[in-house]
Specification:
By secondary structure, this protein is α+β, with helices and mostly antiparallel strands. The chain has 3 helices and 7 strands; from the N terminus they run αββαββββαβ. Strand 1 and strand 2 form a beta hairpin.
Length: about 160
Amino acid sequence: MMLRTKSTVAALGLAALAIAGVLAVTTQSSGSTATLVTSKGRFPIEVEVADTPGQREVGLMNRESLPHDTGMLFDFGQTRDVDMWMKNTLIPLDMLFLDETGRIVRIGANAQPLSLDLISSGGPVRYVLEINGGAAARYGATRGDRLEHAVIPSRN
């Protein structure tokens, strides 16, 4: 009986460590602040990070609003062509397509809610930042501007 209890405790301990590891990887980047750097200034944006296939699939679907200066940062884990859409997305969004250094390579402005039209990155990207429709213009964001965030390697 004692041996069984020890093995059960050991198994639970290993399970707890595995869960803690997963949480450390996924929660370190969610609910964090990114900084959009444009010619108009530095703009803090509270972001949720979508870095798993499930999180990227759901994105900002079914939300009736998005607070001012917030968004979702999609990390695709590799640089590649990306197509986004607005299926089940109830609010207009701007999509900033970013390369592996966080530089904006394309902006998809005011994507139409509930549309199934594909919004293409127009070339290889690593990240996409979704923010409220019209926010990119308000921040003065243009191609070549940069997003800073813990998941984006700093340039040196």
